[in-house]
Amino acid sequence: MVGADVSFSSFPIKSQRITFDDEQVFGDHELKTQSLGFLSAGIGPYFSHEFSDKWQLMLKVTGGYAATASGKVFVKGSDIDAPNHELQIATYKPKPAFRWNTGTSMTYKFNPGLGLTFYTDYNQINSTIRYYFSDEIKESDELDQELNNMIAKEKISYITLGLRLTAYF
To answer: How many other C-beta atoms are found inside a 10 Å radius of the C-beta of residue 104?
Structure first.
């Protein structure tokens, strides 16, 4: 049988302390990046097997498309003169990318129309992220050449575990 799935995923990014080449920490400043977000859709084969009237196993593999959300990068420090002590230094935009997913689930059927499903999915997105730095950084020739239009290739993978109520029609 052929099936499809649609999902929204958001990934927080851990803040990083700013250091120089000599390993000295630059005050209490840190880089903060907003979460990555993806809206994904995929299609592919699904296999289902009923062990009994009460138990059902399902396996799937899908491939598809991941649309992306843009975000911002900030420097945060107690001496930055702003209400939240943050200064935006860049924005980022991941390019839409191919994604694939595989998963399995086990359903216990309470009756022919309703069941409780335990599921696990593995997802992978191969994304290219482009960074655009602020005007202050663009004014510095050295930083402009090093940083602006910087591209990072990221293989983002994650596992989802959960329970859901399943209705059969």
So the answer is: 14
Only one residue has tokens 């596992």, namely 159
Q: What are the phi and psi torsion angles at 167 (to 5°)?
A: -105, 135
The residue-averaged pLDDT of 97-121 equals: 96
Cα three-residue angle 54-57-62, rounded to 5 degrees: 145
pLDDT digits (tens, 9 = 90+) for 39-60: 999 999 999 999 999 999 999 9
Q: Are 132 and 93 in contact (CB under 8 A)?
A: yes
The answer to pTM > 0.90 is no
d(CA 162, CA 136): 45
Convert the chain into a string of H (helix), E (strand) and C (coil). Answer: CEEEEEEEEEECCCCEEEECCCCCEEEEEEEEECCEEEEEEEEEEEEEEECCCCEEEEEEEEEEEEEEECEEEEEECCCCCCCCCEEEEEEEEECCEEEEEEEEEEEEEEECCEEEEEEEEEEEEEEEEEEEECHHHHCCHHHHHHHCCCEEEEEEEEEEEEEEEEECC
